[in-house]
Specification:
The complex is a heterodimer.
Chain A lengths: L2 H35 L5 H5 L2 E2 L4 E2 L2 H32 L4 H15 L2 H15 L6 H25 L3 H9 L4 H30 L27 H10 L6 H32 L3
Antiparallel strand pairs in A: 1-2
Helix pairs in contact in A: 1-10, 3-6, 3-8, 4-6, 5-6, 6-8, 7-8, 8-10, 9-10
Chain B lengths: L1 H41 L2 H6 L3 E2 L6 E2 L2 H32 L2 H16 L2 H20 L7 H25 L3 H9 L4 H12 L1 H17 L2 H6 L17 H8 L8 H32 L1
Antiparallel strand pairs in B: 1-2
The chains are: A mainly alpha, B mainly alpha.
Amino acid sequence: MNVAKIREKVAFTILGLITLLVVIPILLTIFYVVKNGAGAVSWEFLTQPPRAGMKQGGIFPAIVGTILLIIGTMLFSLPLGILSAIYLVEYAKDNLFTRLIKLSVVNLSGIPSIVYGLFGFTLFVVILRFGTSILAGSLTLAIMSLPVIITATKEALESVPFSFREISLSLGASRWQTIRYCVLPYAIPGILTGTVLSLSRAAGETAPILFTVAAFYLPRLPHSIFDQVMALPYHLYVISTQVPNMPMKLSFATGLVLIGLVFLMNLVSIILRAHYRKKKLW
Amino acid sequence: MLKRTSEFVIEACIKLSGLAVIIFVVAIFIFLLKDALSLFGVHSINDFLFGKKWLPISEPAKFGVIPLLLGSLYVTVGAIVICVPLGVCSAMFIAEVAPSHLKHVLKSLVEILAAIPSVVLGFIGIVWLGPFLRNTLNLSTGMCGLTGSLLLAFMALPTVISISEDALIGVPKAFKEAAFGLGATRWQTLWRIVLPSASSGIIAAVMLGIGRVIGETMVVMMVTGNSPVIPTSLLQPLRTLTATIAGEMGETVAGSEHYFALFAVGLILFIITFIINFIADICLRKARK
């Protein structure tokens, strides 16, 4: 074996070890939360409101709150995200305006989540007078999710072969008919995958909901979209920093439920992707 | 005719949605600017930008952003120094060394890490990493800059790994084949040919990693000790720009000086991340060519 070969062996081993250094903490993190939290996750924990200053009982209102926020976020961000991606891929010409939109998408994705929180607070809570409410929180999270949905939809639309559009147009279909019947159906899997992923990220976010929707302690369920709700990530923040002598088990269990919810959504998106990939027609 | 009208409406919606993204960015900027300017009406902009004390509730209140800016800088530099070598090396391993089944496993693990909400990592920082560092390094408190840096480095890894990996994979095959043809080993090819060719993509990965770290709120608020003083080392408590907004917003009265000061901090964050993302975007575009 010559020197170059030995060097290669050594270098690749080092790269492998560094990768292990990255991967092992990921597994340990999950293992740590599961080990300490699994014991406290029970049917009662999932379906009961918190009691005794959150030191007993469950996290039902926080689960409901987070699910409501996910739905609200989807209602606002999905149509807007898909339409703007359609604009970028199917309508936009290569000009300054289009470049501005693309630059805006890039920057929107880079804005810190807490700045979205500030913006959502001024616009939705104060100026539009929605108050700290599900509506204000969903809208804030929706704007934050937009860039991810736009990027995913854009990629999905671009992956539909150009010939599909040419054939449809050549048969006399209008531009919108072409998009509606010959492009969108084939882009749906990609769009769904991206949407579910972006929603799972929104579900785990704390900073944007701090001042727009999250309630410190609110055992009853909301009656309208103008109500505050508890949310899982904020609840975990509260019980791990603001509540003295909090039973550790409950904090871990809350973290576990949050991770579980987010992973479940990721899993759905992976299954969707695999399912549609099998059915791919071209 | 009805069909014509509905089509017209839909196309109008599509065009408006395209515009919406620009409107949001501009609106966010204007809202931050408007409230930040209200602060500078009563408080000099010099005292804000160069003031060394952040004492929002003392009399008279001081809104010097330097301690917060340095807090963010310390934590970010710490995180990037840890994250970039680890991330780029793992990306090299995943892209060029690992066999395909291992590659899938590794990539899924990185995706799992990306999915973990930051508040969960902050919680782990409080219950495990902070106390662990305090005991091993003999610190007075584990809630310090280093704990934040380590967790942020961990959080930024998926961004750095996946974008670096894309950059490495995007290097034209012909480059590698030419190197192999000249008798280079896989390592020589990776180190001398592939890595330099992917450099603009890797710079983009680093920039986006920095953006992710500077903007992260919950982890730093939970584990860095929340003390708005000028930091001298990573081993002491500090406070970042993001944590200041998150921590103090709830205590302010809308329309007060303190309230406007937090928007001014938000404006600084907006400008910093805008520049970072702009640079990253230029690098990515260059990489694609």
